[in-house]
Amino acid sequence: MQRLQGIAVSPGVMIGEALVMDHEGFRISRRFLPRDSVEVEIERLSAAIAETTDEIEVSRKCVAEQLGDDYGSIFSAHSQMLNDPKLRRELEVMIRERHYSPEYSVSRVLRRYAKVFQSLEGAYMAERANDIFDIEKRLLRRLLGEKREELAHVTSEVLVVARNLTPSETAAMNPKFIRGFATEAGGPGGHTAIVAEGLGIPAVVGAGQFLTDVSGGDTIIIDGDQGLVILQPDEETLARYRHEIDQQKDLLARLEEIKDLPNETADGVRIQLLGNIEFPSETELVLSRGADGIGLYRTEFLYLTGNIEPSEEVHYAAYKEVAEAMNPLPVVMRTLDLGADKLSMLPTPDDERNPFLGLRSIRLALKHVDLFRTQLRAILRASVSGNIRIMFPLITTLIELRRAKMMLADAMEDLEEEGVPFDRDLPVGMMVEVPAAVLQMDRFCDEVDFFSIGTNDLVQYTLAVDRSNKDVASLYTSADPAVIKLIQMSIDAAGEAGKPISLCGQMSGSPLYTMLLLGLGLRSFSVSPSATLEVKRVMRGVTIEHCEKVAKRVLDLESSRDVKTYLREELLKLLPDQPA
Question: Locate the PEP-utilising enzyme mobile domain: which residues (predicted)?
Answer without folding.
Answer: 157-227
